[in-house]
Amino acid sequence: MTIDFQGTHFPKRVMLHAVFFYVRYPVSYRDFEEIITERGVDADMRH
């Protein structure tokens, strides 16, 4: 199965990292935003 990431807001590696954290750890959006910001990804999830 292949997932098409065309038209997404973030790169594929960021999306997969987000899914990993969502499934593995009980983190809120605020916590997740802080985690990926610490890793150098500019992600403002407050749209």
Brief write-up:
This protein has a domain of 31 residues. It is built from 2 helices and no strands.
Descriptive labels:
mainly alpha, 47 residues, single chain, 0% strand, 2 helices
Let me know the average pLDDT. Answer: 77
Order of helices and strands: HH
| Count of alpha/pi helices | 2
Radius of gyration: 11 Å
Unreliable stretches covering 5 or more consecutive residues: none
User: Helices and strands: which structural class?
Assistant: mainly alpha
Measured between the Cα atoms of the first and last residue, the distance is 31 Å
Q: What can be said about the biggest beta sheet?
A: none
Strand content: under 5%
Can you give a write-up of this model?
The chain is mainly α. The chain has a domain at 10-40. The protein is 49% helix and 0% strand. It is built from two helices and no strands. The protein has helices at 12-24, 29-38. The longest helix has 13 residues, at 12-24. The radius of gyration is 11 Å and the shape is globular. The protein starts with 11 loop residues before the first helix and ends in a 9-residue tail after the last helix. The mean pLDDT is 77. It comes from Paenochrobactrum gallinarii. This is Transposase-like protein.
